[in-house]
Amino acid sequence: MTADRKAVCLLSGGLDSTTVLALARREGFACYALSFDYGQRHRLELEAAARVAAALGTIRHEVLRIDLRSFGGSALTDDIAVPKGRTPVEMAGGIPVTYVPARNTVFLSCALAWAETLEASDIFIGVNAIDYSGYPDCRPEFIEAFERLANLATKAGVEGRMRVTIHTPLIRLTKGDIVRLGHSLGLDFGLTWSCYDPDPAGRPCRACDSCVLRAKGFEEAGLPDPVLARL
Description:
CATH superfamily: HUPs
Mean pLDDT: 93
Strand content: 5-15%
Order of helices and strands: EHEHEHHEHHEHHH
Helix content: 25-40%
Shape: globular
CATH topology: Rossmann fold
Distance between the termini: 41 Å
Structural class: alpha/beta
Strand order of the largest sheet: 3-2-1-4-5
Number of helices: 9
Largest sheet: 5 strands, parallel
CATH class: Alpha Beta
Low-confidence stretches: none
Number of strands: 5
Radius of gyration: 17 Å
């Protein structure tokens, strides 16, 4: 695979998207990172995304503004309490209030638009359907459906010039698997951010679903979390 093969990589600044970006780079893709300022509760994940994009040598990093806060309906974009202290088993029992309605559909649609402009047939996203908070837009069925849509909805697809592939290399991995994979790729996880509800000093809460799953991953991998080591 030549280094001029382009890919759009969705980048939140968290463990999963960072690992996926590193994988795409290892596979020889010229990576264009796409992050979103969508009205989330804090800026720390966007700051992490910028650090990661720079450290991993992306060709370009775009931060697209889409104000999903104007719709509300999620603890990540509205004045709704973020759930705390849930176990991974409890997380698997339903869709939590941290689900942002149609977020991955919106994000992938924007990635598709940029990919078509770049003439890039590959899009990478760090969705996971094993250790996750039960979001419906992280499931394989959703990704498969979106890939079909992508190849029906674009000029390049209709003309037969390009077939879009949505890559989800982490979708069947546990959080421990993901941390081990990132470690094997030489990632500095200290650049990343996962917490939904940091304190005023910018420290992770350690109790939201994202913090709990992150801690689970590092524990299973037998590695320290460099973000916590700095506290």
